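Notes, p. 3: input format for complexes.
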Amino acid sequence: MVETPYKLISREYSRFFGDKAAHRTVHIRNVRLGNGEPVICAGPCAIESRAQIMRIAEEVKKAGAHLLRGGIFKPRSSVHSFQGLGANGLEEAEEALHWLREAGDAFDMPVVTEVRGESMVELIAKYVDIMHIGARNMYDQDLLVSVARQQKPVLLKRHFGASIEELLSFSEYIAAEGNKDIVLCERGIVPMGKGKSYTRYTLDLAAVPVIHKETYLPVIVDPSHGTGRRDLIFDMSCAAIAAGADGLMIESHYNPAEALVDGPQMVTPDELADIIAACRTIHSQVRKG
Ligand code: PEP
Ligand code: MN
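Output follows (289 residues plus phosphoenolpyruvate):
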């Protein structure tokens, strides 16, 4: 028998998730992710105020989103960039978490935010329905273990330099804690070559069917970070659903130009509604039955 570094989540090797042929459905409160209709997670890159997250929540819900996202602890390349409201201290972090919870509850959407370090795990677990481990932290096995122990669903994004095998190997740290509610996310890898790549990252959509063949786990696609370009989100969302993605994570804002982070890749709620409608059609035509 050939060894695999991800026995617990492997379709081939494990009985951990039951039936060999099954796909796992992750329950995030009332939302079922995996093995069904595509689940859309939308919201701003970063929460900037209570009014901002409340308005975005209302508008993305109207557009058809199921889950609400919003960053509070942002991973940034420069210490001089906006780091998220969580950087202002514990009180501000908790206040922003409270707004996220409030917005999710007001518009009946489970909420997700990124856990950037171990020290924030317990605080964030008190407020969110699914814990998000960002691309930069995919390799942080201590963070993975401590997030897994909260016994909440976990969203694990692929590092931009990671192979698919590494993504699956590291998700095994979560499964090994007895937490089966893992959602994987393809969000693009570092572009190759010396010339212009035209996109922020290279969205590896082949990862979607590969992950489905290799594991039981649902996988979503983030075309926002995957392209960095608002004008490409519609096309790549459609392509992701056609490839079998169980959902999408799409950054959205009523006025992307005023956003402190990732404005160029954020779609408006109207654009989001068009994306969701197209994805529903594609899913019913290409993936169902
Ligand atoms: C995010 O989703 O807010 C984010 C920072 O994405 P990634 O970790 O994929 O860069
Ligand atoms: Mn972002």
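Residues 63 and 273 are 4 Å apart (CA to CA).
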